[in-house]
Amino acid sequence: MWQQQVFFGVHYDYHANANDRNIGGDLSEEHLQEWLERIRPDWVQCDCKGHPGYASWPTKTGTPAPGIVRDPLRIHRDVCRRLGIRLGMHYSGVWDARALELHPDWAAVNEKGERSARMTCRHSPYVDEVMIPQLIELIDVYDVDGFWVDGDNWASTPCWCEKCSAAFLSQTGATAVPRSPADRWWRRWLDFHRDLLRRFVKRYVDAVHARKPDCQITSSFAYSARMPDSTVGIPVDYLSGDLDFRFSAQNALLKTLEEAPAHALLLLTADNAEQLLPTIVSRCEVIRLRPTTAAAVTEFLTAQGVPAEKARLLGHLSGGRPGYALRLAADEKALAFRAEKLDDLRELLSANRRTRFAYAEKLAKEKDTFRQALFIWLSFWRDVLLRAAGSEWPLTNLDRAEDVAQISKRLSLTEARRLTSQCEQAIERLEKSVNARLLAEVTLMDWPKVTI
Q1: Cβ atoms of residues 360 and 344 within 8 Å
Q2: What is the pLDDT of residues 113-125, one digit of tens each?
Q3: In the Cβ-directed half-sphere of 29, how many Cα atoms lie within 13 Å?
Q4: Cβ neighbourhood burial of 310 (10 Å; 0-12, 13-18, 19+)
Q5: For the chain, what are the domain ranges?
Q6: Percentage of residues in the chain with pLDDT exceeding 70?
Q7: Which CATH code fits 2-242?
Q8: Is residue 272 scored above 80 in pLDDT?
Q9: Residue 192: what pLDDT?
Q10: d(Cα 266, Cα 182) in Å, to the nearest integer?
């Protein structure tokens, strides 16, 4: 088992898509060999198919990205073999948007009967007709040494399609398919889908081992903190999961709280108590420091000499935080950046896919800029959600009230809620160091097309 003999490796997932135009064009054997000789890794894990579903090699069993200029997998294979470096593949499993474009009936269905545009159903032919044939092709053509399958764990969701619903009723003896955690049989419904995932992973792992027994394969996060599964039913060769520092850091903090000296008073601050371990919260007295009103902040700023109209806007933008409002009043660049990103949002809503992809590529280059833009857009979508729900609660973006009003009239409450939730999730995922460009693309592609 070669995974036991290696220590340092290089992993990158490119996630090729329909708009890539120069895949492999800037890569040569000489360049790659020089780079690997400098870094001297024990193994390399390069991308072959990401979440969009387009292969970055000229596959015969799926959809190759249209922008393949030179086969990057062939270059990696030849150079790695020459240098004695093991070569693994990054492959997106459950999440395959291209497969669902071609086969919409393979999509996972949510509790409202809506088909996913990204996540495949465990009862669909996807694993047998796309995934396994591609994994076998990679073994046969490139003799790869392993696979790191991405997304199975966190991208798998319960599916309410006819096949899943019928199988659940037949296998469990339940009398109804639950729709929410409050419904009877909900725990069995989740267990049923956990078992489907285990069988899904076992199917492709067994197929890879049958073709090449020493090809090492794993499903990311299997048997990790994100999938604490005690059932031994997934024959992966090794365990792999992204490390979240909060697991260990919060446990260390817990020990400090439990063993603090009698004379000590520890004051902890947190943006969101829900992100802390319950054992930490239970050992603290929670004091919620609530914001003041927008009117009070406006009055405070006016007393500081801020013009009345600007003070009123900042009073709402600050979320009831006088100190933040005062900093904004003195930071014209921040206000200009906010205006620019809201203007961009307005234009992107009516833009075509090509324009959105180009904007996403540019935005993702600066992670901090991307993060700031997401927070600005989140405030806008929350305003839209308020108006879509019929609420008269004061808007955050007072100067964009007309845009908010027009968009909220064209979106359903469900759609407004989804866009707000999507923006919140994008912020969280960006902080976990996911692929920024892919995140930007997914975020912008999910926005509705609205002309204001």
Answers
A1: no
A2: 999 999 999 999 9
A3: 9
A4: middle
A5: 2-242, 246-281, 291-330, 333-445
A6: 95
A7: 3.20.20.80
A8: no
A9: 94
A10: 38
Q: What are the tokens at 19?
A: 């708009």
Q: Which residues contact 18 (CB under 8 A, 6 or more apart)?
A: 52, 54, 65, 66, 98
296-347: pLDDT as tens digits:
999 999 999 999 999 999 999 988 888 889 988 988 999 999 999 999 999 9
pTM of the model as a whole: 0.58
Residue 218 near residue 142, CB atoms below 8 Å: no
What are φ and ψ of residue 303, in 5° steps?
-65, -25
Q: For residue 9, which amino acid is it? A: G
User: In this predicted structure, what is the pLDDT of residue 248?
Assistant: 61
What are the backbone angles phi and psi of residue 419, rounded to the nearest 5°?
A: -65, -40
Burial environment of residue 305 by CB neighbours within 10 A (0 to 12, 13 to 18, 19 or more): exposed
* Contact in structure between 86 and 146 (CB atoms under 8 Å): yes
The pLDDT value given to residue 139: 98
Residue 9, CA atoms < 13 Å, CB-side half-sphere? 22
- Give tens-digit pLDDT for 388-440: 999 988 999 999 999 999 999 999 999 999 999 999 999 988 887 778 999 99
Exposure string of 396-430, with b = 16+ CB inside 10 Å and e = fewer, is bbbebeebbeebbeebeeeebbbbbebbeebbebb
CA atoms of 355 and 347, how far apart (whole Å): 10
Question: Which of 27, 127, 131 is closest to 76 using CA atoms?
Answer: 27
Give the pLDDT of residue 245: 55
Measured CA to CA, the distance from residue 317 to residue 398 in angstroms comes to: 8
Average per-residue pLDDT for the chain: 90
Q: What is the strand order of the sheet 43-49 is part of?
A: 9-11, 43-49, 86-92, 146-150, 216-219
Alpha-carbon distance of 70 to 15, in angstroms, equals: 16
